[in-house]
Write a structure and sequence with these properties.
Elements: E1 6-8, E2 17-20, E3 26-33, E4 41-49, E5 58-63, E6 70-76, E7 81-87, E8 94-95, E9 118-126, E10 130-137, E11 145-150, E12 158-163, E13 174-183
Antiparallel strand pairs: 1-2, 2-13, 3-12, 4-9, 4-13, 5-6, 5-12, 6-7, 7-8, 9-10, 10-11
């Protein structure tokens, strides 16, 4: 369903991206996917943070239409800033903690979760038991934080991909780019 957002031809990673000001989420229904240890689901998205505010509510998520599985990652204002959640039965919003810079030093000298200007790659791997989230500040291949949450899988799987929370974002907008959802290994390639 159409939500808020527009084509941004200036801030892309590279090229164009979607500027999302907050508000109505953008979502797409997909064929139901099931996460298993043999065929984990990997969802990756680049999100641009202008670094001006920790009061943002802009995330990328996966869920089932019945909301039996709900996975989100991005920026959320409570807890402060880069955060994830794996709800039903996992916890609601949990902040990335002990964030390090690309050299392995605590971010800002103390590891606090504060806005950083740039493109950041968020990824979650779902294996039917856990949700393993990673944050790559600067999208350069260096993992700056990891969070593993219990995510016991509901039989409904996931059938919806979302960009945005459906909530206002008083701290401003973000851009989304390079959205990828895959089952690893992709089942059709097993016979090749």
């Amino acid at each position: 369903a159409a939500g808020t957002g527009s084509l941004d031809t200036v801030v892309g990673n590279p090229g164009n991206s979607m500027l999302f000001p907050g508000g109505a989420q953008n979502q797409q229904t997909i064929a139901t996917l099931q996460a298993t240890p043999a065929n984990p689901i990997v969802y990756t998205v680049d999100i641009y943070d202008d670094g001006t505010s920790a009061n943002k509510r802009t995330t990328a998520g996966l869920r089932s239409a019945s909301v039996a599985n709900l996975i989100e990652m991005g920026m959320y204002n409570s807890p402060n800033h880069y955060a994830v959640r794996a709800v039903l039965p996992g916890p609601s919003w949990v902040a990335f903690d002990n964030i390090v810079d690309d050299l392995g030093n605590p971010l800002n000298g103390d590891g606090l979760n504060v806005p950083v200007v740039g493109w950041h790659t968020f990824q979650v791997t779902l294996d039917g038991t856990n949700a393993t989230f990673t944050l790559d500040l600067n999208g350069d291949g260096n993992i700056n934080a990891t969070k593993v949450l219990a995510a016991a899988w509901h039989a409904n799987g996931i059938d919806t991909v979302r960009l945005g929370t459906g909530l206002s974002s008083a701290g401003g907008s973000v851009n989304f780019d390079n959205v990828s959802l895959e089952v690893v290994p992709e089942p059709a390639t097993l016979a090749l």
